[in-house]
Amino acid sequence: MTDVLGRKPPRSRARLWVATLLLAVYAGFIAVVTLWPSPSDLEFGGIADRVLAVLHRFGIPETFGFDELEFTANIGMFVPLGFFLGLALPRRGWWLALFIVPGYSGFIEFTQATALESRVSSILDVFANTTGGYVGLLLAMTMRAMIYARDRRVIARAIWERDAEIIRARQHPLPAKQAPAPREYDTATRVFEQPAWQDPSDAPTERLRF
Which InterPro entries match (predicted)? Predict the structure, then answer.
């Protein structure tokens, strides 16, 4: 059977390689941001003040302060992580992300509590990070399900059109082309209905019967 069909086409690994690369880069970015020994070097305080000023200018209540902004930022920071993780994992192994996301967040908070004196660890941060990671995972799985359903429809339509063409060809076969029968000429036609001869000596001659 394989000889008739030919060599099996290879699987596409583009999604896996790209998603894994983005996942590694972004996970490293989160590690640098959250595990940097001196948070003051990253100027988070000044950035947070400017962001809060803009939000309050656009009508966000003054009660939305630094703690609320930090909680929201923790959610948003882990959304891309969950999204890339959902793309990198196999379709049947997506459930591993349910443990990887909180595990990675727990590792960060544990390192902050045990090895970084300038950092403050909180179980609330684990909850916020896990929530953001699950949101990104849901987005990735939804996108993969939509693409999978679209590909199935495209393949099914291509197969239907191929089968319809085969059935149509069987029901209405094309007539075989027949070669034209050789034309028979009488003696006078062979002599007088030929094209104009450039050289009279090349013209065909016939012996006429009297």
Answer: Teicoplanin_resist-assoc, VanZ-like
